[in-house]
Design a protein that fits this description.
The complex is a heterotrimer of chains A (about 350), B (about 350) and C (about 200). Chain A has about 350 residues and is of the alpha/beta class. Chain A has ten helices and 14 strands. A seven-stranded mixed sheet of chain A has the order 3-11-10-7-6-4-5. In chain A, strand 4, helix 3 and strand 5 form a beta-alpha-beta unit. In chain A, helix 1 packs across helix 2. Chain A is globular and about 60 Å long. The termini of chain A are far apart. Chain B is of the alpha+beta class and about 350 residues long. Chain B has two domains: about 70 residues, no CATH class; about 200 residues, no CATH class. Chain C has one domain: Rossmann fold, CATH 3.40.50.11310. Chain C has a six-stranded mixed sheet. A three-stranded antiparallel sheet of chain C has the order 6-5-9, with helices on one face. Chain C contains five helices and nine strands, in the order αβαβααββββαβββ. In chain C, helix 1 packs across helix 2. Chains A and C meet through helix 1, strand 3 and helix 4 of A and helix 1 of C.
Chain lengths: ~350, ~350, ~200
Amino acid sequence: MTTATLGGMPAITYNFAYLDEQTKRMIRRAILKAIAVPGYQVPFAAREMPMPYGWGTGGVQVTAAVLGPDDVLKVIDQGADDTTNAVAIRGFFEKTAGVATTTATTEATVIQTRHRIPETPLRDDQILVYQVPIPEPLRFLEPRETETRQMHALEEYGLMHVKLYEDIARHGHIATTYAYPVEVAGRYVMDPSPIPKFDNPKMDDCPALQLFGAGREKRIYAIPPHTRVRSLDFEDHPFEVQRFAQPCALCAARGVYLDEVILDDRGGRMFVCSDTDYCESRQAAGHRGEMAPPDAALPQPVSPRGEDATRVSDDASSDLSASARGRPAGAGAGAGTGAGTGAGGTEAGHD
Amino acid sequence: MYVAAKGGERAIRNAHALLAKRRRGNRALPALTLDQIAQQLSLAVDRVMAEGSLYDVELASLSVKQARGDLIEAIFLIRAFRTTLPRFGASQPVDTAAMLVRRRVSATYKDLPGGQLLGPTFDYTHRLLDTSLVGDIGAPTAEIGGAEPADMPRVTDLLGEEGLIESAPADDGAEPFDITRAPVTFPVDRPTRLQTLARGDEGYLLALGYSTQRGYARSHPFVGEIRVGDVEVKLFVEELGFEVSLGTVQVTECQMVNQFKGSAEVPPQFTRGYGLVFGQSERKAMAMALVERALRWKELGEEPGAPAQDEEFVLSHCDNVQATGFVEHLKLPHYVDFQAELDLVRRMRAEHEAELKEAAE
Amino acid sequence: MGLALGFADPVFDSQSAFRAAMWALARPGRLEPLAVTLDPPAPLSPEAAALLLALCDFETPVWLDASAAAVPEVARFLRFHTGARIVAEPGAARFVLITDPARMADFAEFAQGTPDYPDISATLVVQVERFSASGLVLEGPGVPGVRGFGAQPLPADFIARMVANRAGFPLGVDLLLAGAGHVAGLPRSVMVREG
């Protein structure tokens, strides 16, 4: 493990995919049990990772344990490949495992995600690894692990139904919009991680293997392919997902999850796909939303996120500031050339 | 194929370059050496070793430098390194009675075998800013009178001879549970509790220990003894059939002596709260001992109810690397979930408005 | 007598054997290719050896069935390459090696997990000679619709054993059937009937 000496201190090198083999075996055994008992949270001895707890250490450990040299890895955060944490995690595996990476959902064999399931349907040779902050679906009803463990053992989920029903009594509908609890294979109630409930139906009968890693809370759980995943609901109040009134402003997709991008301080906003790969693939295939850039601008990256959020405000960032002016590139390109059709009354691009 | 990541990647690179620049500070000034940190900021280094659970002065000094003096960040660096190290076995229990003592105080006896040894302490210093430290005054050159090395039996052992304090739990010789290698499940045993507290955040334990003094699980504590010094770490090598010494580490041990009213089976006697940490950290060792004692309420038949007695609460939240990660993760993007909430709030507002309108009509 | 070699490349060989086992349990009854690179002492098969070397270490006590325990080289091979303790008490094992499946011990002999921790249960590595697509009909998580599956040899009352194993869900044991360059999984979640 330790090789050359640098300035009196030995240089430090790490194993393939960072984790030592003993740790990988321990995680792998937990994954096998998680698959055998769908939806049950297997305790595992999560290690400290070289990234903070809460930033995907569980997902990273699961990915490191499954990853092989022939894998192609995709990492998304909020559905996007270019968000800073996705970039950092992808870079971690490029560096420690030397695996091929991609942003294309269809090319990936392993996809690590935070908060989204890709829009492109997954295949039966793919593994979707979720980063999970709080794996216990009952945690906000009962903070004690000793209690919630009992509830799962006894299949005692009345408290959860009471909570959801109280929502209905108070608001007329269930007020949980993300991390919406599901029942897996008719037995365990499971936290799907903080994905919007829009994504819940994608978990049901999904051909891909879904693995969930919670590093700080030291839990791994799984949904095997083609497993019944039911979002909790009531006969008189069936589960329903969010609907967006308008299509994606860039690729015109409907029935997908959209992010709201604020364009100015006068109420201007646009709605674009949260799944950047899906959106870009559609644009490459010729689909155009009402604020899409003209054909000539393609294959110019159309990525309204990431850069702005990560801009650093010092001299070292001078080479970046030119390309990140705090306005979505797509919106600017579209509206600036007059190709925009006055979408939604916004005045995008009029700086 | 278009790779979306460019903007984020460049921003991260730039941010890291900027961090390196800030870390170095004014280049006209000489860079800190690890020796300077280890020698002159040794209590910071001690804390990093204690809560990082790795006894390595050089690496801890490096982490303090790399973390720009942010000790929780430095602890995190050490932990992330430590976790990659292979584990060869469990050492024999260190014998603190055989410690090469640098400092030793007892609040329960005026004098005792081996004597009290103040050693290097802030205690009894006047907390006045010392401007003589602005420059390099050098160390005092005059001889510092030291105590003759003497046999120093532990105060709790002295009390134990009379049967006035519960006996120390016997060592069953089994390898203790390792919280870094196996997931903790509640309720925990004593080794698990002590390990978790030993790497727990100093500030957190300080506050909880303090709360026990203010009536939340009061246990009438006395400092039986605090001792700071070097202990030998020995490993029994099965292949050789004998113990080998791995070297010495500096530790601080606190034995808190607490009241106990006795029960049907046990006559009235004192009870123990125990604290042991790497390096010199009396605050941490004392706070740990108070919290350890508070967590023992069940076995001692005491009334529960105070925060410091709540095992699952105390032990689940004392790790500052976990805590800082999860608190700080809130700065990661959450816009997908926020969008879902935004949608819901708008819908609920619309429904609310409609209801008001209806009511008005 | 020399000791048979372990994995030529422990990092990648372990990973690929694990991935085969993972997909096997995730898709019950579907054959997953398992590279045969080892030459372990008989009656331990190369496929079963690969699974055990990939998954076992000092944290996982292993129990050997009578025919494997009768050959000391098997225990020596596993101990040397994994560091796992070989235990005499079947209920103490996390991994179980069955080299003579027709006479395999009752599942109830092995750790089933507890209601609070159903994961603390045994994984059985069962050596078989042949796989087929009939004899058993599988249903449940990991199976789109139903899937035909068969393996030989297995005890005559195998279906009844699997039904009883499923009835105890979430407790139970999980099976990895290894042989002929493949591994197939029968996790406790699978529902098995004749067909």
